[in-house]
Amino acid sequence: MRAFLPRTLALLCSQRPGRLELPLARMKVKILQWHAVASWTWDAQDETCGICRMAFDGCCPDCKFPGDDCPLIWGACNHAFHLHCILKWVNSQTSTPLCPMCRREWQFKG
Amino acid sequence: MTSSSSPARKMLSKIACNRLQKELAEWQASPPGGFNYKVSDNLQRWIIEVSGAEGTLYAGEKYQLQVDFPEHYPMEAPQVIFMNPAPMHPHIYSNGHICLDILYDSWSPAMTVSSVCISILSMLSSSPAKERPADNDRYVRNCRNGRSPKETRWWFHDDKV
Q1: Is B15 within 8 Å of A100 when comparing Cβ atoms?
Q2: Does ipTM come in above 0.90?
Q3: Would the CB atoms of A53 and B14 count as touching at under 8 Å?
Q4: Which of the ends of chain A has fewer CB neighbours closer than 10 A, N or C?
Q5: Cβ pair A52:B76 closer than 8 A
């Protein structure tokens, strides 16, 4: 997971602590307290799972909550899927399972 | 007493239902060229009209594909057959069954109805002659009682057509 700092917060953080210099009016701002809000996203090349076609930042059709409850998993070939989706595929295969995207032998990335 | 030629079909799973709704929405937003989905309220059976591509043996001709989805689609391939009359093609039997690996052994859950349709049109377009497979009569006789092509053990021997 990768967290992004909102722009304004990043701006504030780039200033020296406790002081914010504003270009026109010279005034001192003292930050007493701040509340950080971050967003997260999966760092996958695609936006949707190739099996269920749901967004990676959402969850597979069997889950309710994205994130740790419905994680992404990468194969040795670097293709990502919802863990629950690729497990259904791998378990449904009687012979060696192949990556649904590139047909190389499916192996979980170590 | 009644009898049905098609095997009893199980209801679509939640995943299958979800994915098909997405595929249908994507299809309606940008349908693959040469195909026309016949609107119905049955998500589990799609009827798709195919138009032969210009400059090929099938130019100006129209055929219909019947696509049936199994309970565990997309972990299992859909059953795709041509409705009567099926195009004359070295890999299409007169009962509509299609000898195309991605519909059986080489199916992948990353494929969609749209990508399957494009493969079928490409197979039609590259046909050198309008003829039936050499073993057509024997195969069709073996398929009486409405056997699904998914029960056939296919032999894929020609990757040119």
Answers
A1: no
A2: no
A3: no
A4: C
A5: no
Top residue of A53, A84, A105, A106 to mutate, by most chain B CBs within 10 Å, is: A53
Record: contact B109-A103, CB cut-off 8 A: no
Under a CB-based contact definition with an 8 Å cutoff, are residues B62 and B38 in contact? no
Task: Give the list of residues 6+ apart from residue B15 with CB closer than 8 angstroms, or none.
Answer: A52, A60, A61, A62, A85, A88, B72, B74
> In whole angstroms, what is the distance from residue B15 CA to residue B29 CA?
21
Tokens of B112: 């969609």
DSSP single-letter state for residue A61? T
Residues 6+ apart with CB under 8 A from B152: B97, B104, B139, B143
Q: Which residues pair with A58 in a beta bridge?
A: none
CATH top-level class of B32-144:
alpha beta
From the list B19, B22, B110, the residue facing A100 with the nearest CB is B110
Question: What is the predicted pLDDT for the residue at A110?
Answer: 79
Q: What is the pLDDT of residues A48-88, one digit of tens each?
A: 999 999 999 999 999 999 888 999 999 999 999 999 999 99
In chain A, residues with a C-beta closer than 8 Å to the C-beta of B74 are 51
From residue B20, how far is each of B5, B17, B46 by CA, in Å?
25, 5, 10
Name the pTM for this structure. Answer: 0.79
Peptide bond into A100 cis (omega under 30): no
Tell me, yes or no, if B99 is annotated catalytic: yes
Token reading at B128: 């050198």
Chain A CA closest to residue B106: A103
What the block records as the tokens of B76 is: 């299992």
